[in-house]
Amino acid sequence: MKKFVLFFIILSIAGFTSCKKFLDQEPFSSLTPSQVFQNSGDLALYVNSFYVDQTPSAATITGTDNTSDYITGNTIPPLMSASTNANNPVADPAGGWSWSVLRNINYFLDNDNSSKIPVAVRNNYNGIAKYFRALFYFRMLKQYGDVPWYNHAVAPGDSSLYKPRDPRTLIADSITADLNFAINNLTETKDPGSSTITKWVALALKSRFCLFEGTFRKYHTELSLTQTASVFLNASLDASTQIISSGNYKLHNTGNPNSDYRALFTTQAPWSDEVLLASVYSSTLKLYSSLNSLFTSPTLGFRSSLTKSFVNCYLNADGTRFTDKSGYDTISFVNEVKNRDARLQQTIRCNGYKRSDGSAAPPDFSYTYTGYDILKFTLDDKTLDYSSLNNNSIPIYRYAEILLNYAEAKAELGQFTSSDWAATIQPIRQRAGIAAPFPVTADPYLTSTYFKDISDPVLLEIRRERGVELFDEGMRFDDVKRWKEGPMMSLPYLGMYVPQTNTYYATNGDGVLNVDFVSTVPAPTVKGVFYYLVPVTAATLTKGSSGNIHWLPNYDVQRAWNDKYYYYPIPAPELVLNPKLKQNPGW
Amino acid sequence: MRINIYKNIAIPCTINFLFKFMRIQLIIVLLFQTVCMAGTLKGQTMNNTRITLNGQNISLKAAFSVIEKETAFSLGYNTKDINTDQKVNISAVNEPVVVILKKLLKGYKGEISQVNERNIFLKVTRSEPHKDFIEHENAAVVNVTGRVIDDTGLPLPGVSILEKGGKNSTVTDNNGNYSISVPDHTILIFRFIGYTTQDQTVLMKEGNAVTMNVTMKTVSNGLKEVVVVGYGTQKKVDLTGAISTISGDVLADKPTPNVARGLEGVVPNLNIVMTDGKPIRSPTFNIRGTTSIGGGGSALVLIDGVPGDPSLLNPNDIDNISVLKDAASSAIYGARGAYGVVLINTKNPKKEKTMVNFSASYTINQKTVDPSVVSNGYQWTQNFVDSYTAWYDYRSQPTTINGVLPYSPSYLDSLKARVTNPSLPQVTVDPATGKYLYYGNTDWYKELYRQSMPASDYALNIASSTKNSSFYISGRYYNQKGIYTYNPDDFSRYNLRMKGTVNITPWLTVADNLDFNSYKYFYPLTNGNAPVTRYLDVTATPMGILRNPDGSLTPSSYNAVGDLASGNDHSNTTQMYIRNTVSLNADLIKNYLNLKADFSYARTNYNVLSQFYPVSYSAGPGLTGQSVNNYLNNSGSITNYWATNVYAEGKKSFGKHSFKLLAGTNIEDNVINTSSYQRDGLIDPSLPDFNLLNGTNYTIAGGGNEWSIAGFFARLNYDYDEKYLLEINGRYDGSSKFPSYSQFGFFPSVSAGWVMSKEKFMSFASNWLDMFKFRASYGSLGNGNINPYQFIPQMAVAQSTTTSINGAYPTYTKNPNVLPTNLTWETSTTIDAGVDFSMFNNRLSGSFDYYSRATTGMFTPSQPLPATFGAAVPNGNYSNLRTNGWDLSLTWNDHISQSVRYSVGVVLSNYTATITKYNNPNGILPYGVNTYYKGEKVGEIWGFTTQGLYTAEDLAGPHPNQTNYIVVSNSNIPLPGDVKFKDINGDNAINIGKGTLADYGDLSVIGNSTPKLPYGVNLGLSVKNFSFSAFIQGVGHLDWWPGTDAGLFWGQYNRPYGSIPTSMLANVWSPTNPNAYFPRYRGYVALSGTRELAVVQTRYLQNAAYTRLKNVNLTYTLPQALAAKLKMSSAKIFFTGQNLLTFTPLHKYAPNYDPEVINGSDPEVNPGVNIGNGYSYPMLKSYSLGVNLTF
């Protein structure tokens, strides 16, 4: 018996000691940090998460301009809605007051220090991380102005969580420093698939960011930073120059002005001659967007439509201004779109546009409110309208923007010459099939409608060109903000000119009647005709029974510009959690 | 002898000392006993068995017990005849037992008879001293016959009758008659489940025949009942912890897909919330309310001692269930039992009997609630336009109906025309667009859902036992057809259980318990992978119809029902569970020391095969489109679990002192491996096999985790005369879920009981008070209910499905979770005080407990951090909670006549939980933010107070400005009929201030979502061969905020294109109906943000209290004689109805909701996300007819 007891005692002791081991369990289906930063493959694995976090989708890129002056849709921009406030904040489509993306980047930078990996390799990946950190802070800066700067993953007890915002100057300088690091350490090899971050992509971001910051400081005089604007304009210029002089990129130009422009947005493989980075879609991967459903559906999308005042900015094919023509504002749609900048017919449906099956596709008033029906991003295959199966990749940075950035920075610095014109705006216009003489007079239409304080004819043309070339690529509201041209956002939403109501029109130019503007739908109806009801609360004609379509006239007052819209509101609970954080003015 | 020594022992004052002492004593006693017993059994007689017995002033009882222990003889006598408390002196050295007995019984006369090898019967009378006893070494054999009846006079068949200490036994026949031949003075033991076991002594009178009729008494109040407790059993009278028990009978004849459904409301404060009616739904078992807001935790459910999922059980297998509620009674399970333990024990064969039981039933299921929505297309569209334009301040007209149908005023006119002329076609083609226009009046709930669904249930079990072995085999098949008209869901469950026991030697028993069960569930999916109901609400308008004239699906239907009708999208879930437990039971020293060991292995295979195949639809002749998803996905998990327990129990009594000591160890290990693989390009939707795919996209994912626990436990029970009871538990537990420095914790508990009714001063009440006991307990337990590896930074690796780099989906890893600084057990400390009583001859019995449970060091976020932190706030042992409550159960059991019996049982409980510590330094309110504050009552609802609806006068006159916070429309221009809020803080503005305790604006606590006073009422009535029972269950009060996206409550206030509850129509504000419940008819105002109906407020807070007739059962038992003719021992026919009637204030404004299915949507379709309350699988009511036959 005693042996029996002894046996049990020994067994328990043995059991207990082995128990300690038994109770030490390690995860077997995830890594731990000590296993991750060991070789370059690990670093590649990690930096992929930055792409996943910050590569915008096609719908995000095109949807960003739904908050802009030149697009209207089924409702007014959420930022200007009466229901928007700090308790009901809205945010940039790419993300609001969320900081997890930054933590992920900073954690990488904090831990990428294994001596087993060559410094150059680490710096390349750190360069990617810093590119994405710059991208993150650029977005925060655009949305909120001053924001707290963090270059380490913060511990929960860190007092820096409770610091006030850091000044804009610190943020901007830090973004520049990150980008410079990226530029100096990233690979110089161009990516023919336009899907990875290279030195050229980092330069493109620098070109875009520094132009933003330089012009923002120049025009937002209330910041008292005008003195430093030129530093950023020069930095932008420098970045653009490096891309241009590298010879890696050029405008995608096959000599077909009627299709070269739109090809950039409608092919599966990005045109890597022009596109530095794209949001890539693929039939092979079954990675699709729903662009056709968004733009070609009476129901699913925002029903983005161009406004008349912007369509007026498209030049005539001969390089003259459309708005210089007498009676330009009472021209009917079919005549309006004739002999214009070839980008117009590649941006909206007009001039006998046909789907891939050969069927005529006039502007469809069940997709557009203004008559300017966007086709820039949609594919011609009709069956895609009902399915989310778009495989066309959408550019994030392309060479044309670099040229436009270059031109604008030079012009803002007052250094713009005719040779700059010949190197930037001229080739862009020529791709669109229009003559492009150096401008010598300021366009009275642009100065009266849009840019009242700008008298430099070149700068006006550069701004025109930027709007037309980069239409709906997600940059317009940023332009409005940096130019401090907020009141542009309050222009009435005008549509095509309607010579008179109760008349059938063929807006495709092929004689097939497709729309009638009526106060009541007649009986019997005509096949294929859309009966556009005016006047109703949402739509009127500017002159009663004729004139331009005036979309959402009742909201014109609501849309009055308020300077608080230059920044988004910070969510109210954050101000409680960090009392040193102050709300943006006006919210 | 050591008898005197024991008498002088005081109860040691420290537990430790007692513990040590007991161990030493036990070992000594055991050693002695073993030696003593050797060789004395075989052929012993009272004359040849000699022992030594010396003692001064010892009681007769003590002396007898020494003889019994040292000789293996059992002494039988009538306590009326012998005063066993009488003190005697004895001095006998190696003398025969019979001589010692005579010495002890000085002063008595009578007979000393040796009945058999183990029994001696003392037949004495206390009268004149008598020098000689008559001795019988070989008693005469007597033929005993008789009849056994129950306390109502009905014969009891199947009662087992055993010779005490002997080999003879028999069983009563169908008429309750028996006959047995045994030696005179034998004690016969009469045993029958549910009745008190009786001992009767055979006393030969004249001749060799004796008639002995016995009346068995039911153990209605269970006083003598043996209750299963942790690692053992205990007599119910000896319990000191808060333990509720129920017999498996509550589940009998209730056909249900899931045992858990049958347990709802049966035990006070065992809270089982059925979130919906899905047959696979497995609820968690909560005991006594809020456990922890950190690790959380539900009760540990053990099936035959091994953790398991009760919903997988065959209800026919369940013998009894014990619910261990307080810390003291669950302490033996340590960390996993922190929030109570539910012990479910399966049936064992009855002693030396063979029994075959078959039951079958057929059930018709119906939904408890059939959503009633407007199906008139014209009416619906008018409302749609009203709500849409109202949101847009009457400034813009809709141009589409949620992107599914185009809208124009002329369309409304066409609908109106169809009201007056219903013969107009339902579908036309719009000449302008070539697209179909629809003018239907579809009630999608009728179109898609069946009105009644069948289910069937078959069960067979066979049990047999012989003296040395037994087996039990049971099987069950259950099938339930689903709710949809097209490709309805289909559920089947299979159960098989095999149990066997073999007595290898008289002291060693080996048993095996094998449980195999499996279910299959076919469930239709939608291509967008959201619940069908949700799609009905937002996509399928009444005007939409299922199919176009050419037979293709319509755009309006393809999302919602196209997948159902086509059968293209569905999932097949299979789960297979197998568990085997081998156990050893060694009576090392009979009646004193027992060693048990068991080893269990369980494996669960869970697998879901889902397929998505595009559904084509047509928007107009020649205009076809299709849904996108086309793939096959297989996701599954394999869980391997093993556990072993080794424990020993020793018991010993010394006079009125009884001790019981249990000690043992428990080790468990659980590994789960998950896998998921998917490929696109299904070639044929009817052949979902991975061979038949041609897509180039594959995803393969693994995963899993492992945890292990080890514990050492001990329990000491002491009772004095079954009057004063004490129990001490301790467990030392280690868990792999904590870092090694905080892996182990020691958790002690103590409980005590006092059976006051046994005190002499209570004798005045003895004729009406059967039993009255006080109990109290105190103990603390650890809770380690967190995910494994929380203290290890983990970097998951995943493949993107949204971004492509270099022509492929990148694989990536991310920054790890932020680690807590310290991490250890949560501690839950419970104090419990209770009474058990039974009175009026056991007709009334009940128990009441009050408890207070403090949960400390709860695993919660350290404190809300600014978003700039950029990660989920790490959890640690940061907060405390206190839950106070009580539970009560009362039963009245009586009969009016021999054949009419009835019973009424009530269970009732309540609790409140309060946060006593939480790191929320800014005092942020739990209003739209997931946080708590010190002093918060768990479940409290913060909201605005609704003052009414605006009148024109209100708006014209001065009124608090609410437009800065509350939104009523796109441009936020309030109009008469909009909701008017009360300015609580008097600042003339309606808002939430800073949303903090210091500045809460116009918020206040307006309700609490914790169920108040959950109750159950059990009624039973039996008249002759008929028995009737009813079970009513309910909740006294529960505040429910419908929440955003609850379309079946808010109708078009949620989304203008949503369905409209018919009950809403009369309750909508209009200038002519200014006192309506619902405000001005505006769309989107209940959808999100701070819109007037999206903010929590008093007016639309619902009381989801309910009273539900959960179960009624009517059973007819065939008369014995008739059953016997059919060669059956019992035959029953039953009707059972479940969820037949419901009364709830909720139905005043939310008749489309079942009060038990108010929260959540469909967790299988959208895991972890609630996409709108009310979109769950409906609760079912059922009508069953069945038979239950025993052979």
3D structure, described in words:
The complex is a heterodimer of chains A (587) and B (1191). By secondary structure, chain A is mostly helical. Chain A contains 21 helices and ten strands. With 1191 residues, chain B is mostly beta strands. Chain B starts with a helix and ends with a strand. At the A-B interface, helix 1, helix 2, helix 3, helix 5 and strand 8 of A face helix 2, strand 25, strand 26, strand 36 and strand 38 of B.
Summarize the structure.
The complex is a heterodimer of chains A (587) and B (1191). Chain A has 587 residues and is mostly helical.
Tell me the number of helical segments of chain B per DSSP (H or I, 4 or more residues long). Answer: 14
Global geometry of chain A? globular
| Beta-strand share of residues of chain A | 5-15%
For the secondary structure, the number of strands of chain B is: 60
- Please give the oligomerization state of what you see: heterodimer
Largest protein interface? A-B, 105 and 112 residues
**Terminal Cα span of chain A:** 83 Å
Structural class of chain A: mainly alpha
Classify the secondary structure makeup of chain B into a structural class: mainly beta
What number is the mean pLDDT of chain A? 91
From the alpha-carbon coordinates, what is the Rg of chain B to the nearest angstrom?
A: 36 Å
| Helix coverage percent of chain A | 25-40%
